[in-house]
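Quick log. Single chain, no ligands specified.
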Amino acid sequence: MPAVEDVHNAIVATGINQTGLAEVSRERWVELAEAGCRQGAWDTGIARTLATAFLNFVASETAVPLDLMTQTVWLVTVTGCRDRVPPAALERGPPFVGGR
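-> predicted structure:
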């Protein structure tokens, strides 16, 4: 099992690489992944809700599309708690940018 620090590093790298939001704090990326794990953000609707809240809170002035942020929420959630994600959700994969 990877160390917590390694998982957190992977979460931050995924969030920044997906969105370009390097100004978002490490703590905020980790909080997003933890919320996704608690709420089940492998479900696209839940991921979209968390994405909307995240963009409203930290990036309201950026041009990150909601579909891209939804995909990012899914990815950081799976990075943070892959062992809790249902196998069917892993097989389906993240929501596509452009809808799915």
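The helical segments are 4-19, 26-39, 44-58, 66-81, 87-92.
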